[in-house]
Amino acid sequence: MQLLTPEQMGQADQMAAASGIDSHRLMMKAGEAVSAAVLRRFPAAVRMVVLCGPGNNGGDGYIAAKALFEAGCNVSIYHFGDLANLKGDVAQAFNACPVKPQPLAAYAPKANDVVVDALFGAGLTRSLDPAVQSLILNLRKAGSNVVAVDLPSGISGGTGAALGTAVTASHTITFMRPKPGHFLLPGREHCGTLETFDIGIPQRILTSVAGNTYLNEPSLWKAHLPATSIQSHKFKRGHLTVFSGGHGTTGAARLSATAGLKAGAGLVTLATPSNACTEATAHLTAIMLREINNVRELSHWLEDKRLSAFVLGPGFGIGEKARDYTNLLAGNPVVLDADGITSFAESPDRLFYSLSKHPTTFVLTPHEGEFARLFPDIHSDKSLGKLEKARAAASRSNAVVLYKGADTVITAPDGRAAINANAPPWLATAGSGDVLSGIIGSLLAQEMPPFEAACAGAWLHGAAGQNAGEGLSAEDLPNGLPKYSQIS
């Protein structure tokens, strides 16, 4: 599913009108979709309250209020702004509405109200008026059910940021395509459940204005998933190497290796220094062991061209050894995570220069702190949302960047981006990220392109968390991975 920014959706609206499509008719369809959703979800509501702003979002609200009134509901409208300034489609919707609006300040929320938030849509770029913010706080105190039109007022459609106090809806209705702000935090928490209605803008117009931002769903990468055949053997399914730290620090790498095996790699080897071989051997069965102590030994082992992909970072240790290994691996499919990323905190340009000399083969998987260490200026730029930050990081590093979190964002140097939204909150547990690295490494070993491998890995990781259930530990996740043949 392609996601449209508010600017792109506005452009689509303009192109639809220019092509001869009646813009007021589009507004009517939007408002009627809102009323239908409200009636479906709250058929026994005592009072429907519609809050209308001065723009097109308010126009949707007036039409929804008219439809609810005609359905026999007890409807009240409260408006923000000067009604004398309404123009175009919004004025037409207001004039056709049989319910007389009252000023917003006159509304006193009640717990049993069903409130339609049609104050401000996805294009909001500034904090709400103090009077509106005060009303929002009163809505929260009253515990009213809120249905948001397009996006809860106070949430940025482009970044998901809360622009001051924002409405928290139990349900959000948007039109034609969702916006990034529906899935990026904190916007996603404010939206409640989300419905997208087709109001009649042609697909050709949406396609022409769309960029390259997607919701991370199987349709984005399923065609690249590994497929086995009767002629498959272990080397055809890829050989993944996971680098381990020394004695007492092998656990994270073992989690990655186990995940890599469960995710389909034909062979997985744990590359460990000699002082951790006995410890690692005690925990390994199907995973192989290779003693690698230094760059010379790694360089010799890399002469084996059957090695397909690598994971470096989980529990590896921070320092020059990690930097040297990374430089030697440049040009190969690699997941660089955890200590591998932090090892370049003092010299990120050294990593970027190494990666710039090759096609994009690396996947960087930083969490918030690691991202800040590797890209400090990008991270501190308050003008950028998470999506823009991840895009800037991918462009700078010539790597696919998987910016972890409850709203994981995956970006490629060519500008493609996906927002992952299927991860349950109980994935926030120690070792979960190590499992994610192993899944992505396994997909790289099986020749998935880096962007698709990162997107698939994030989605599979979320699905595994759902299957394992609340209270999971990282060890449970590999067994929760869905079968590729059952992904639709």
If you had to describe this structure to a student in words, what would you say it looks like?
- With 488 residues, the chain is of the alpha/beta class.
- The chain folds into 2 domains: 6-210, Rossmann fold, CATH 3.40.50; 218-486, Ribokinase (UDP-N-acetylmuramoyl-L-alanine:D-glutamate ligase).
- Helices cover 38% and strands 15% of the residues.
- The chain contains 18 helices and 17 strands.
- The chain has helices at residues 6-18, 23-41, 56-70, 88-96, 130-142, 187-191, 203-209, 251-262, 277-281, 295-301, 320-329, 338-342, 348-356, 368-374, 376-380, 386-397, 432-445, 450-468; strands spanning 47-52, 75-79, 102-103, 113-118, 145-149, 171-175, 193-197, 213-215, 239-243, 267-272, 288-291, 309-312, 334-336, 362-364, 400-403, 409-411, 417-419.
- A 10-stranded mixed β-sheet has the order 8-17-16-15-14-13-12-9-10-11, with helices on both faces. The chain has a 7-stranded parallel β-sheet with strand order 3-2-1-4-5-6-7, covered by helices on one side.
- α9 (277-281) links the parallel β10 and β11 (288-291).
- α2 (23-41) crosses α4 (88-96) and α17 packs across α18 (450-468).
- The longest helix is centred in the N-terminal third of the chain and has 19 residues, at 23-41.
- 51% of the residues are buried.
- The mean pLDDT is 96.
- Its EC number is 4.2.1.136, 5.1.99.6.
- Keywords: ATP-binding, Isomerase, Lyase, Metal-binding, Multifunctional enzyme, NAD, NADP, Nucleotide-binding, Potassium.
- Residues 9-207 form the YjeF N-terminal domain.
- GO terms for molecular function: ADP-dependent NAD(P)H-hydrate dehydratase activity; ATP binding; metal ion binding; NAD(P)HX epimerase activity.
- AMP binds at residues 404-408, 433.
